[in-house]
Structure formats: C-alpha cells, structure tokens
C-alpha cells in the first residue's frame, strides 16, 4: 500500500509510536507475513535504524517467548524480512537471544535455521562475532556448528578469535560431544590457516 511509504520518513521515535499504534508486536501471524511482503516491495529500502526497529517490534517478543517450534507463518515472515534486512535482524534478534538466560532450545534452533537457510555471508559473520562476544555455553555450540556448516571464508581476525575462544574454553567442554564436533569442523575447514 502507498501509505507504507510513511515508514521512510519517520524518525525512530515516530516509528516506534506507529508500531505501538498498529500493535505490530502482537498482530496475527497471517498479517505479519503480509506486512513483511509489503516491506520487501517498499522503495526506497528502509534505513538500517528503521529496519532494526521494525525487526524488534515484529519479531523480538514472539521469538523470545517460543516454547515450541515456530509456526510456518512466523518462519515465513522471518525469512521474508531476512531476505532484505538480515543484518539489522541479526543485530536485534541474535543479540537478544544470546543474552537470554537459560536453555532457550527453540530460540537456538531458530537461530541455526536462519544461519543455515536465510542469512547472507556477511550476516553469518555477524552472528559468529556476536556469539564469540559472550561466554560459550552448550546451547551456543549448535549455532557455531551451523555457521561452520555454511563453509564461508572467514576474515582472518574472526577465525583467530574463534580458534582462541575454542582453545580457552576447552577445559569447560572436556566431556562435550558438540564441542568435539566443533573443533573437528574448524580443523577440517580451516586446516591451512590453523596452526
């Protein structure tokens, strides 16, 4: 709808007010999918700040409250949004999931799915750098495995940080099968760069 062009002229506080007025954080999922498809057609593209704010409003509460696998509609909306605004989505969503205490099994699975199927290479690197900023835990190992599964060429500084983190954390994961798989994957994929 032409009315959506207003999103490009809103300040962050106005956009937040608009999202609140439209109740986007709790809108029904079929509307969420339609709204995300409208966003893709928007020209010019949303600014980084606006896209990050919309990612927070549209998805954050839904993702953090997951206790079972996300619905097909929520996944479709996320995938759609991700296809154009993966960087702001990662910045908002991944950071929040990483800071959540506890297991967060569904959130971890969702992050793995996004990494494996939706994110562009530069966003995959962003996820990796975000994961390496927090203390490693068993719940984050599958996310690292998903990142390595993409077999992207990592910048040397990011690869060094990954290797250093794995070395430092080794004692804490002495009995972890996931950790062993991760180390094997790093040594296999980046054998020429890892001494």
From TrEMBL:
GO cellular component assignments: Fanconi anaemia nuclear complex
Residue ranges annotated for the Fanconi Anaemia group E protein C-terminal domain, each copy included: 1-194
Gene3D superfamilies: 1.25.40.480
Pfam families in the cross-refs: FA_FANCE
GO BP terms: interstrand cross-link repair
InterPro entries recorded: FANCE, Fanconi_anaemia_gr_E_prot_C
Protein name: FANCE protein
Source organism of this protein record: Daphoenositta chrysoptera
Phylogenetic classification of the source organism: Eukaryota, Metazoa, Chordata, Craniata, Vertebrata
Gene name of this polypeptide: Fance
